[in-house]
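Hello,

Following up on my earlier ticket. Below are the two sequence lines again, exactly as submitted.
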Amino acid sequence: MRVTQTMLSRNFLNNLSNNYDKLGKLQDQIASQKKINKPSDDPVVAMQGINYRTNLQEIQQYKRNFSEAHDWLDNADSALDEATQAMQRIRELTVEASNGSLEDNQRKSIATEITQLRDHLVEVANTKVGNKYIFNGTDTVTKPVDLSTNPPTFSTNNNPVNIELAKGISLKVNPDTSVFSGQQSGDLFFDLNNLINDLNSSNPSNIGGYLDKLDQATNKITNERASLGAVSNRIDLMETRNGEQEVTATKMMSDNEDADLDKVITDFIAQQSAFRAALGVGASIIQPTLLDFLK
Amino acid sequence: MTSTFFGLETAKRGMNTQQSALYVTGQNISNANTDGYSRQTVNITHTEPYPPVGMNRPQLPGQMGTGSKIADISRVRDAFLDQQYRGQNNQLGYWSTKADALSQMEQIMNEPSDDGLSATMGQLSQALQDLSVHPEDEGARSVVLNRAQAVAETFHYLSNSLSEIQDNLGNKLQVSLKDINSILKQINDLNNQIAKVEPNGYVPNDLYDDRDRLVDQLSMYVNIKVTRGPTSPSASPIAEGPYKIEILDASNKSVGTLVDSDGYYQLGFKSGEGPESDNPTEKMISGFTLEKQGNIDFDVASFSQGSLKGLVESYGYVGTNGSSGIYPDMLDKLNKLALTFAQKFNDIHSSGTDLNGNAGSNNFFIFASSGNSADYAKNIELNSSITTSMIAASSSATKEPGNGQNAIKLANFQNEDLSTNGSNMINKGTIGSFYAGVIGSLGVDAQQANRLTANSSNLKESVDQNRQSVSSVSLDEEMVNMIKFQQAYNASARNITIVDEMLDKIINGLGTGGR
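Thanks for your patience. The regenerated structure is below:
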């Protein structure tokens, strides 16, 4: 084949620009750390990439939801813990007051303390997390317990607050509001108010009878704590699983679209030396012509 | 017996011939880097020997050569390689045009990335998930509204950008047609010039080169067949004559003449159509027309391969099954996606209850009535009358500020089954899978176009390589020729000196014996 200078230089230019193209692609991969930068680089990877991203986004969202769920449960738990301590103190005071040898004014001072404790329980029932009342079902913007009104108002909303923690799985994270109700006998605040009234009256007969009712209320609180604890455990398990899923999903996404730096850099160096060789050879072939040797 | 000055004349012819050959060498060297130039060679032959055959010929022992002359100056070119080159250039034109259009589309769609449409929809989902956890929170609600706005704006951006590029492709289409017609006119002009020169016995190599360069350009736009017409009886045997250029359809069958010795014919859009039309229904073209006596119409589907067809297929055209094309198809898919997304979202939204205990609005996303009503992606809007408290996060029929169940449903809009949808919406799979499919098929199309562009470009390069091998100027070769001709010239001159000395002997040296 007849080969001319024009062909050589065109070939040389073509090869150089091919080399540049390859170098550019590798450089893109190194700079973006991604195997592909547009769908046509690899349509399958691009499509999978969209799915993996959605998947990972969901998992990360659930991760945020977990901390919300913990927030609810931990706050409810500590509120109920406080409530239990208050109940224990109330019980001690009631036992002391049930002793028939007490004077009226001694009982009255006990009544004052129990009133304080009752108000404390109201505060506990009105616990707010952020902007939300946690002991009022889904009606999180109104106070669940208000004794200042007549008749006193208590929460009537015991609907579950559900948080989605995995695809299709929502868990109830709010405590049962009935632990702080007061509509009828057997309800905490109803009985406490009666107890305080009885203590304030002269010569009450049946203070000891309140002990059972107090125990029942305390049990209710403890049971609620136990069930919240169970939910919390379940959430912990789910959270661990979610964490594992996040690792897997991230790894899958990374395997799918992230560039293998070792490989890319090796390729880059190989390409670079090919490029330098092409430059060098090109320079030494293109330059001389017969003219240089004719005298 | 030959004339006394016979040798002088022979040597003079030698000098003339070698000098002319040297000039052609100079022409080759000065055009070494001229695009489309074919190297020229000088065909040197001997002149008529003496004596010629005849009754009254002088009696000589044999015929004597009388020197050399230049028979003709021809260009070195292989028409078969030209044909191959044009075929590959045609393929390259088609695929590179499509690859260009698709790569621009890829840039606009910007997937996979952290700020494409799928990411924006994902962020809306996240905002809705956050809302489901804090349904009473004003902040979470306004984030949802902003993210919903962002989704609508992303739809606008994609739709507008795609339409803009489609318009650009329309302009390109018109410019291409103008270019084609101008090339046809130029080829016709060259045909005419050549027809005037050839009868005089000249071989207009430079005009041939010009014409071939133009045909090369034309081959990128449309698939053509080139045949050489008859030359004038008085023309040189190596004269090429006028070109007849025919346009081939998709199955490589000739369907019309673009240029022949009678003139040239303009290529245009079918009457009344074209991207420059103000009427949107006429903006789409259904084919081309060759303006001849009695116009010839071509459908796009069966139209000649090449960058013109690539442009039409990207810009969009009306075929037998309605309009199609790369950009209209993508816009159509986006419109479907926008409509389905809005309806699905509105459906779920209306099944919930807002912060005030009212049923959720069925008009969360609305479509602006301006422009073409089918441009859903362009017209989708977040209803401006929706306030933060009107987001229906609750699933309960009554007022429940802490209930975020409907927000969870809303957050999962990308995974909703769409199989119950109507016909002008997506009715398969989910929004998420549909969009991933759209991007996937865009990727496959672009990959194919890129691959075929690279292939045809390689093939074109290799044919061109062969063509260059035949036609391009080699400086080394010219240098050798130069020395060859120079030496022959010098030797001819020396020959004259020798003959001169010989004659000197006769004229000045003879008849002076004994002086």
